[in-house]
Write a structure and sequence with these properties.
Elements: H1 2-14, E1 22-32, E2 35-44, H2 66-69, H3 78-88, E3 93-98, E4 102-112, H4 115-122, H5 126-134, H6 136-139, E5 144-147, H7 151-163, E6 169-171, H8 174-183, E7 188-192, H9 200-207, E8 217-222, H10 227-235, E9 240-243, H11 248-266
Parallel strand pairs: 5-6, 5-7, 7-8, 8-9
Antiparallel strand pairs: 1-2, 2-4, 3-4
Helix pairs in contact: 1-3, 8-9
The structure holds adenosine-5'-diphosphate.
Adenosine-5'-diphosphate (ADP) binds near residues 44, 48, 62 and 80.
Length: about 270
Protein backbone atom coordinates (compact mmCIF):
# COMPACT_ATOMS: atom_id res chain seq x y z
CA UNK A 1 0.00 0.00 0.00
CA UNK A 2 2.89 2.34 0.79
CA UNK A 3 4.17 1.80 -2.76
CA UNK A 4 0.91 3.18 -4.22
CA UNK A 5 1.12 6.36 -2.14
CA UNK A 6 4.83 6.67 -2.81
CA UNK A 7 4.28 6.61 -6.60
CA UNK A 8 1.23 8.85 -6.74
CA UNK A 9 2.35 11.43 -4.18
CA UNK A 10 5.84 11.31 -5.70
CA UNK A 11 4.34 12.27 -9.07
CA UNK A 12 2.28 15.07 -7.52
CA UNK A 13 5.51 16.53 -6.13
CA UNK A 14 7.47 15.95 -9.35
CA UNK A 15 4.87 17.55 -11.59
CA UNK A 16 4.09 20.54 -9.36
CA UNK A 17 5.48 24.00 -9.88
CA UNK A 18 7.42 25.79 -7.16
CA UNK A 19 5.06 26.85 -4.38
CA UNK A 20 2.36 24.45 -5.58
CA UNK A 21 -0.10 22.75 -3.29
CA UNK A 22 -0.85 19.06 -2.80
CA UNK A 23 -3.94 17.90 -0.90
CA UNK A 24 -4.24 14.35 0.32
CA UNK A 25 -7.50 13.05 1.78
CA UNK A 26 -8.31 9.57 3.02
CA UNK A 27 -11.76 8.54 4.22
CA UNK A 28 -12.68 5.13 5.59
CA UNK A 29 -15.91 3.17 5.48
CA UNK A 30 -16.40 -0.15 7.27
CA UNK A 31 -17.44 -3.04 5.06
CA UNK A 32 -16.90 -5.82 7.59
CA UNK A 33 -16.26 -5.46 11.26
CA UNK A 34 -12.52 -5.64 10.74
CA UNK A 35 -12.10 -4.09 7.32
CA UNK A 36 -12.26 -0.62 5.91
CA UNK A 37 -12.60 0.65 2.40
CA UNK A 38 -10.26 3.61 2.17
CA UNK A 39 -11.06 6.20 -0.45
CA UNK A 40 -7.87 8.13 -1.16
CA UNK A 41 -7.46 11.32 -3.14
CA UNK A 42 -4.20 13.01 -4.12
CA UNK A 43 -4.79 16.41 -5.69
CA UNK A 44 -2.13 18.76 -7.02
CA UNK A 45 -2.25 22.08 -8.85
CA UNK A 46 0.74 21.28 -11.03
CA UNK A 47 1.31 20.99 -14.77
CA UNK A 48 -1.65 18.69 -15.44
CA UNK A 49 -2.11 16.10 -18.17
CA UNK A 50 -4.01 16.51 -21.43
CA UNK A 51 -7.32 14.59 -21.43
CA UNK A 52 -6.46 12.36 -24.38
CA UNK A 53 -3.26 11.14 -22.67
CA UNK A 54 -4.94 10.07 -19.42
CA UNK A 55 -6.11 6.57 -20.48
CA UNK A 56 -2.57 5.73 -21.65
CA UNK A 57 -0.82 6.65 -18.41
CA UNK A 58 -1.56 3.44 -16.55
CA UNK A 59 0.18 1.46 -19.30
CA UNK A 60 3.88 0.81 -18.67
CA UNK A 61 6.51 3.16 -20.11
CA UNK A 62 4.07 5.98 -20.92
CA UNK A 63 4.81 9.61 -20.25
CA UNK A 64 2.39 12.42 -21.01
CA UNK A 65 4.84 14.70 -22.83
CA UNK A 66 8.32 16.09 -22.64
CA UNK A 67 6.90 19.49 -21.79
CA UNK A 68 4.94 18.28 -18.81
CA UNK A 69 7.91 16.28 -17.60
CA UNK A 70 10.21 19.28 -17.51
CA UNK A 71 13.72 18.15 -16.77
CA UNK A 72 12.58 15.00 -15.10
CA UNK A 73 13.37 11.76 -16.87
CA UNK A 74 11.27 9.02 -15.38
CA UNK A 75 10.65 5.44 -16.37
CA UNK A 76 6.92 5.74 -17.02
CA UNK A 77 6.40 2.77 -14.72
CA UNK A 78 5.20 4.43 -11.51
CA UNK A 79 1.54 4.76 -12.44
CA UNK A 80 1.40 1.36 -14.13
CA UNK A 81 2.66 -0.25 -10.92
CA UNK A 82 0.33 1.80 -8.69
CA UNK A 83 -2.62 0.95 -10.95
CA UNK A 84 -1.85 -2.79 -10.89
CA UNK A 85 -1.52 -2.83 -7.09
CA UNK A 86 -4.82 -0.95 -6.73
CA UNK A 87 -6.56 -3.41 -9.09
CA UNK A 88 -5.24 -6.37 -7.16
CA UNK A 89 -6.78 -4.93 -4.04
CA UNK A 90 -10.16 -4.75 -5.75
CA UNK A 91 -10.03 -1.05 -6.59
CA UNK A 92 -9.86 1.24 -9.59
CA UNK A 93 -7.55 4.21 -10.18
CA UNK A 94 -9.40 7.24 -11.47
CA UNK A 95 -7.46 10.17 -12.95
CA UNK A 96 -8.90 13.61 -13.56
CA UNK A 97 -6.68 16.26 -15.06
CA UNK A 98 -6.32 19.08 -17.51
CA UNK A 99 -3.23 20.85 -18.82
CA UNK A 100 -2.22 23.60 -16.35
CA UNK A 101 -5.22 22.81 -14.13
CA UNK A 102 -3.55 20.23 -11.91
CA UNK A 103 -4.44 16.55 -11.43
CA UNK A 104 -6.56 14.49 -9.08
CA UNK A 105 -5.87 10.79 -8.50
CA UNK A 106 -8.61 8.88 -6.68
CA UNK A 107 -8.55 5.21 -5.64
CA UNK A 108 -10.14 2.85 -3.14
CA UNK A 109 -8.26 0.26 -1.10
CA UNK A 110 -9.28 -2.35 1.40
CA UNK A 111 -7.47 -2.19 4.71
CA UNK A 112 -7.60 -3.77 8.14
CA UNK A 113 -8.94 -1.53 10.88
CA UNK A 114 -6.77 -0.66 13.87
CA UNK A 115 -7.87 -1.37 17.45
CA UNK A 116 -8.90 2.26 17.83
CA UNK A 117 -11.02 2.24 14.66
CA UNK A 118 -12.64 -1.02 15.75
CA UNK A 119 -13.77 0.60 19.01
CA UNK A 120 -15.25 3.53 17.08
CA UNK A 121 -17.02 1.22 14.63
CA UNK A 122 -18.73 -0.62 17.47
CA UNK A 123 -20.44 2.55 18.63
CA UNK A 124 -21.56 3.77 15.22
CA UNK A 125 -24.75 2.68 13.55
CA UNK A 126 -22.74 1.16 10.73
CA UNK A 127 -21.66 -1.67 12.96
CA UNK A 128 -25.00 -3.51 12.94
CA UNK A 129 -25.06 -3.59 9.16
CA UNK A 130 -21.48 -4.80 8.99
CA UNK A 131 -22.12 -7.57 11.43
CA UNK A 132 -24.92 -8.79 9.20
CA UNK A 133 -22.43 -9.16 6.37
CA UNK A 134 -19.73 -10.69 8.51
CA UNK A 135 -21.93 -13.42 9.90
CA UNK A 136 -23.63 -14.12 6.59
CA UNK A 137 -22.40 -17.72 6.38
CA UNK A 138 -23.74 -18.67 9.84
CA UNK A 139 -27.31 -17.86 8.94
CA UNK A 140 -27.09 -18.46 5.22
CA UNK A 141 -24.67 -21.27 4.44
CA UNK A 142 -23.61 -21.61 0.82
CA UNK A 143 -21.32 -24.04 -0.98
CA UNK A 144 -19.10 -21.86 -3.12
CA UNK A 145 -16.57 -22.87 -5.77
CA UNK A 146 -13.87 -20.44 -6.90
CA UNK A 147 -12.35 -21.19 -10.29
CA UNK A 148 -9.31 -18.99 -10.82
CA UNK A 149 -5.74 -19.57 -11.96
CA UNK A 150 -4.22 -16.26 -10.84
CA UNK A 151 -2.75 -16.67 -7.38
CA UNK A 152 -3.28 -13.06 -6.27
CA UNK A 153 -6.88 -12.86 -7.51
CA UNK A 154 -7.53 -16.16 -5.78
CA UNK A 155 -6.11 -14.91 -2.47
CA UNK A 156 -8.20 -11.76 -2.72
CA UNK A 157 -11.43 -13.68 -3.34
CA UNK A 158 -10.71 -16.23 -0.60
CA UNK A 159 -10.02 -13.39 1.83
CA UNK A 160 -13.22 -11.63 0.88
CA UNK A 161 -15.38 -14.73 1.17
CA UNK A 162 -13.79 -15.78 4.43
CA UNK A 163 -14.68 -12.37 5.86
CA UNK A 164 -18.29 -13.36 5.31
CA UNK A 165 -17.62 -16.70 6.94
CA UNK A 166 -17.50 -18.79 3.76
CA UNK A 167 -14.83 -21.37 3.01
CA UNK A 168 -14.89 -21.79 -0.76
CA UNK A 169 -13.58 -24.82 -2.63
CA UNK A 170 -10.92 -23.86 -5.15
CA UNK A 171 -10.26 -25.08 -8.71
CA UNK A 172 -7.33 -23.75 -10.73
CA UNK A 173 -8.78 -24.31 -14.21
CA UNK A 174 -11.86 -25.58 -16.07
CA UNK A 175 -10.86 -29.24 -15.86
CA UNK A 176 -10.52 -29.04 -12.06
CA UNK A 177 -13.84 -27.17 -11.88
CA UNK A 178 -15.63 -30.03 -13.68
CA UNK A 179 -14.04 -32.57 -11.32
CA UNK A 180 -15.19 -30.52 -8.33
CA UNK A 181 -18.79 -30.31 -9.63
CA UNK A 182 -18.82 -34.08 -10.21
CA UNK A 183 -18.14 -34.60 -6.51
CA UNK A 184 -20.23 -31.82 -4.96
CA UNK A 185 -23.37 -29.80 -5.57
CA UNK A 186 -22.43 -26.11 -5.27
CA UNK A 187 -24.80 -23.18 -4.85
CA UNK A 188 -22.51 -20.60 -6.38
CA UNK A 189 -19.49 -20.65 -8.69
CA UNK A 190 -17.20 -17.72 -9.45
CA UNK A 191 -15.63 -18.68 -12.78
CA UNK A 192 -12.63 -16.88 -14.25
CA UNK A 193 -12.73 -16.97 -18.02
CA UNK A 194 -9.07 -16.90 -19.06
CA UNK A 195 -7.44 -20.01 -17.66
CA UNK A 196 -4.93 -22.63 -18.88
CA UNK A 197 -6.11 -26.15 -19.91
CA UNK A 198 -9.81 -25.22 -20.11
CA UNK A 199 -11.31 -21.75 -19.97
CA UNK A 200 -14.41 -20.67 -18.05
CA UNK A 201 -16.79 -20.64 -21.02
CA UNK A 202 -15.95 -24.22 -22.04
CA UNK A 203 -16.11 -25.42 -18.44
CA UNK A 204 -19.53 -23.80 -17.99
CA UNK A 205 -20.86 -25.56 -21.11
CA UNK A 206 -19.81 -28.94 -19.72
CA UNK A 207 -21.00 -28.18 -16.18
CA UNK A 208 -24.49 -27.31 -17.41
CA UNK A 209 -24.85 -30.84 -18.84
CA UNK A 210 -23.93 -32.46 -15.49
CA UNK A 211 -26.50 -33.56 -12.88
CA UNK A 212 -24.91 -31.37 -10.18
CA UNK A 213 -24.44 -28.45 -12.52
CA UNK A 214 -27.91 -27.62 -13.77
CA UNK A 215 -29.12 -25.30 -11.03
CA UNK A 216 -26.10 -23.64 -9.46
CA UNK A 217 -25.47 -19.96 -10.02
CA UNK A 218 -22.41 -19.38 -12.21
CA UNK A 219 -20.86 -15.94 -12.28
CA UNK A 220 -18.21 -15.32 -14.91
CA UNK A 221 -15.20 -13.10 -14.18
CA UNK A 222 -13.21 -11.61 -17.01
CA UNK A 223 -11.06 -8.70 -18.02
CA UNK A 224 -13.09 -8.34 -21.22
CA UNK A 225 -15.75 -5.68 -21.35
CA UNK A 226 -17.07 -6.51 -24.81
CA UNK A 227 -20.84 -6.79 -24.99
CA UNK A 228 -20.56 -9.81 -27.31
CA UNK A 229 -18.51 -11.71 -24.72
CA UNK A 230 -21.06 -10.97 -22.01
CA UNK A 231 -23.88 -12.11 -24.31
CA UNK A 232 -21.98 -15.27 -25.21
CA UNK A 233 -21.36 -16.02 -21.53
CA UNK A 234 -25.07 -15.72 -20.75
CA UNK A 235 -26.01 -17.83 -23.79
CA UNK A 236 -23.79 -20.72 -22.73
CA UNK A 237 -25.33 -20.76 -19.28
CA UNK A 238 -23.67 -18.24 -16.97
CA UNK A 239 -26.13 -16.36 -14.77
CA UNK A 240 -24.09 -13.21 -14.51
CA UNK A 241 -20.81 -11.75 -15.64
CA UNK A 242 -18.46 -9.38 -13.84
CA UNK A 243 -15.59 -7.57 -15.49
CA UNK A 244 -12.27 -7.29 -13.65
CA UNK A 245 -11.21 -5.53 -11.57
CA UNK A 246 -14.10 -6.91 -9.60
CA UNK A 247 -15.44 -4.57 -6.90
CA UNK A 248 -15.98 -5.87 -3.39
CA UNK A 249 -19.53 -4.57 -3.37
CA UNK A 250 -20.37 -6.54 -6.54
CA UNK A 251 -19.29 -9.80 -4.91
CA UNK A 252 -21.31 -9.04 -1.78
CA UNK A 253 -24.38 -8.33 -3.94
CA UNK A 254 -24.03 -11.58 -5.88
CA UNK A 255 -23.74 -13.57 -2.66
CA UNK A 256 -26.88 -11.91 -1.31
CA UNK A 257 -28.76 -12.64 -4.57
CA UNK A 258 -27.73 -16.26 -4.36
CA UNK A 259 -28.94 -16.49 -0.75
CA UNK A 260 -32.32 -14.98 -1.69
CA UNK A 261 -32.70 -17.35 -4.64
CA UNK A 262 -31.81 -20.39 -2.56
CA UNK A 263 -34.21 -19.45 0.22
CA UNK A 264 -37.02 -18.85 -2.29
CA UNK A 265 -36.49 -22.34 -3.71
CA UNK A 266 -36.66 -23.94 -0.28
CA UNK A 267 -40.01 -22.29 0.46
P1 LIG B 1 7.33 8.56 -14.54
O1 LIG B 1 6.94 9.54 -13.49
O2 LIG B 1 8.47 7.68 -14.14
O3 LIG B 1 7.50 9.17 -15.90
P2 LIG B 1 4.70 7.45 -14.13
O4 LIG B 1 4.09 6.18 -14.62
O5 LIG B 1 4.73 7.64 -12.65
O6 LIG B 1 6.14 7.52 -14.74
O7 LIG B 1 3.96 8.65 -14.79
C1 LIG B 1 3.71 8.65 -16.18
C2 LIG B 1 3.49 10.04 -16.69
O8 LIG B 1 2.26 10.55 -16.23
C3 LIG B 1 4.52 11.05 -16.23
O9 LIG B 1 5.67 11.01 -17.02
C4 LIG B 1 3.76 12.35 -16.39
O10 LIG B 1 3.79 12.78 -17.72
C5 LIG B 1 2.33 11.96 -16.07
N1 LIG B 1 1.95 12.29 -14.67
C6 LIG B 1 1.83 11.42 -13.64
N2 LIG B 1 1.42 12.04 -12.52
C7 LIG B 1 1.26 13.34 -12.85
C8 LIG B 1 0.82 14.51 -12.13
N3 LIG B 1 0.49 14.46 -10.84
N4 LIG B 1 0.77 15.68 -12.83
C9 LIG B 1 1.10 15.71 -14.14
N5 LIG B 1 1.50 14.67 -14.86
C10 LIG B 1 1.58 13.49 -14.23
Amino acid sequence: MAQIFFNIIGNAVKFSKKGGQIDITISGEFIFTENLILTCTVKDNGVGISKDKIPQLIKPFTQASEASNGDYKGTGLGLAIANKLIELMGGVLHIESEIDQGSTFTFALISQASEEELTISKITSHAAENLAIENLADKHPLDILLVEDNDINLKFMVMLLSQMGYTPDVALNGVEAIKAVEKKKFDLVFMDNQMPRMNGMDATKVIRTMPNGKKMMIIGLSASVFKEDIKLAMNIGMNDYLTKPVRIQQIVERIKNCILLKEKEVK
